[in-house]
Amino acid sequence: MRKTTSSQDFIRGIWNENPVLIQMLGLCPALAVTNSVANALAMSAATFFVICCSSVLISTCKRFIPNEVRISAYILVIATFVTLADMMLQAYAPVQHKELGAFIALIVVNCMILGRQEAFSAKNNVYRSLLDAIGTGIGFTIALVMMGGFREMLGTGSFLGYSLFGPNFEPWVIMVLPAGGFLTLGFILLAMGFFEQRKKAKPTKTETEAVEASS
Amino acid sequence: MTEENKNSDIQAENQTTAPVQEVPAEKPVSTFRLIATLAVAGTLAGLLIVLVNQHTKPLIDAYKAEQLQKAVYEVLPDTDHYNTYYLVDSSLSLTLPEGAKESEYKRIYVGYNADKQLNGVAMSRGESGFQDVIMIIFGFNPNTGKLMGMKVLDSKETPGLGDKIFKDMDYVNQFFAGPSTPLIPTKPGTGKGMPGEIDTITGATISSKKLIEIINHALEEWQPYLDHGIPQTSADGEVNP
């Protein structure tokens, strides 16, 4: 029955099936709130909390949830944890909460979270579901921080609020505007595609060398 | 990750779970159980939210009150303490009618210096800017008609452009330099030396002009009540810290 090991469950979401960069899920927050690293981190932390709690709860209670109402039940669980995350951010990180605004509430409809519940937590035990959720959460964080880093560095000339290039740097304002989100994501995907192709091309080379050597 | 790999993974996932999905298909679930499941889940979710809300609400309210208090002292320099006056039946009152909700009443914050003499009045107002509502608070001396300070409380103006209304300190400092009211928005470099002139920001003309308009509108609205007289000395026992 079991096709993957625990470590594969964990690592899969971080890179090979990165939710944002490979699966193209959860793009709404990835584009909207990555104009600074601090915002990207706050959004990642909230999403990480929601996906881990939802996965644990859903994999624990999967026997009690009838198939017909499973999606409603998943959404209810996710919405509850999002509301909790929203309240806690507002109480303990009010500055970030103000910056992220409506996007915290919109974690409910982040298809990455519902997708993991339906595809994994509903079919696997608590331990594996938690590993999968942690891996996916870290993958999401990597993607968001990567985008936030590029956009903040070019858009405001700083990283996590610390100035990098001195006062003579002319910020690329477009990078912190919505268009900058699309551009950054586009360039990251382009770079990933380029390296993926090179990786694919390599074995072919060795194959040809082997053929040459044998002949 | 190639497309083929992804497909094979998805297939593998489906194969693994096929038996789990078949079970409910064989045994139809009663409507009562469907409703009961969601009802129980909903009740538990509600309970959890209420518990966390009870814990976080005092923290959130305290933070909001602290931010407002800080802002009042910032826009009314040299203020020792202030009183909140509510607009009740077209007159200023320190107290609200019994059973009234505080949030439903407009208010001003009247600041006094250490000698309990009137220092200035702070008022907040929000109007639509370039992107969304710009919420500001500003201090005003009703005796001299001069502005004392201004702070942007909430703004979603364009990062890098419109957000200069609170990041460009040359612009912000003009409000602390005691300009006369009503304020006159002026294109930078074209001012005629009038006492109420405020230079707008190139690249953020709409947002910076709007901010000046908000202050003028707020003063227009409150002037009749201010003219009726604000206590020039602080009332004992009714002070905010």
Task: Write structural notes for this entry.
The complex is a heterodimer of chains A (215) and B (241). Chain A has eight helices and two strands; from the N terminus they run αααααααββα. Chain A has helices at residues 6-14, 27-32, 37-61, 70-92, 94-100, 111-121, 126-156, 178-214, and strands at residues 158-159, 162-163. In chain A, α3 (37-61) runs parallel beside α6. Chain B is an alpha+beta fold and 241 residues long. Helix content of chain B is 43%, strand content 22%. Chain B contains five helices and eight strands, in the order ααββββββααββα. Chain B has helices spanning 3-26, 31-75, 164-167, 169-176, 205-227, and strands at residues 81-88, 91-93, 107-112, 118-128, 133-141, 146-154, 184-186, 197-199. In chain B, the strands form two sheets. Chain B has a six-stranded antiparallel beta sheet. A two-stranded parallel sheet of chain B has the order 7-8. The A-B interface holds A 1-3, 16-17, 22, 35, 64-69, 72-73, 76-77, 79-80, 83-84, 87-88, 90-92, 94, 98, 101, 119-120, 123, 155-156, 171, 173, 176-177, 200 and B 1-2, 6, 9, 12-13, 16-17, 20-21, 24-25, 29, 33-34, 37-38, 41-42, 45, 48-49, 52-53, 55-56, 59-60, 63, 154, 156, 158-161.
Regarding quaternary structure, how should these chains be classified?
A: heterodimer
**Shape, principal axes of CA atoms of chain B:** extended
Helical amount among residues of chain A, as a percent range?
Answer: 55-70%
Element order, helices and strands of chain B? HHEEEEEEHHEEH
Count of distinct strands of chain A: 2
Major sheet size, sense and barrel closure of chain A: 2 strands, antiparallel
Low-confidence parts of chain B: 12-20
Number of separate helices of chain B: 5
The sequence of SSEs of chain A as H and E is HHHHHHHEEH
Structural class of chain B: alpha+beta
The N- to C-terminal Cα distance of chain A equals 44 Å
- Mean pLDDT across every amino acid position of chain A: 87
What is the terminal separation of chain B in angstroms? 62 Å
- E-strand count of chain B: 8
Helix content of chain B: 40-55%
Average predicted confidence as pLDDT of chain B: 81
The gross shape of chain A turns out to be flat
Work out the largest interface and the residue count of each chain.
A-B, 39 and 35 residues
Strand order of the largest sheet of chain B: 2-1-3-4-5-6
Low-pLDDT residue intervals, each spanning 5 or more residues of chain A: none
